[in-house]
Design brief:
With 111 residues, the protein is α+β, with helices and mostly antiparallel strands. Helices cover 38% and strands 19% of the residues.
Length: 111
């Protein structure tokens, strides 16, 4: 987030020394709002398009939903490992005369 704010600060200092109109879309609207709160003297007008806000609902419910999403991001569930035909390695049995078997690198199982 600091990188984005620093980018705006750096660009603006090169472009103008007058208050300007800042327009942000989606995540950019959140960054624009934060920038405006830090440097209000630089922003004449702030336009937020499709800003990312929690829905109008119970704040406890919104907080719980956000916590659930964050928990999922930090500890996603383990999904089963699947061996795809393209990722299989062909290996011969130890006698080199028997049937061909396939080793799945994802599971370590021979097929």
């Amino acid at each position: 987030m600091l990188d984005f704010l620093g980018d705006i600060d750096g660009i603006i200092s090169k472009v103008t020394d007058q208050p300007f109109t800042l327009v942000g879309h989606s995540l950019g609207s959140v960054i624009s709002a934060i920038f405006t709160s830090i440097r209000p003297q630089l922003v004449k007008h702030l336009v937020l398009v499709e800003t990312v806000l929690p829905p109008e609902s119970n704040m406890d419910e919104t907080s719980s939903q956000l916590a659930t999403h964050l928990d999922y991001l930090t500890q996603p569930p383990e999904h089963p490992r699947v061996c795809h035909r393209g990722s299989r390695r062909r290996s011969l049995t130890s006698s080199n005369t028997g049937p061909v078997s396939w080793l799945c690198p994802a599971t370590g199982q021979t097929h």
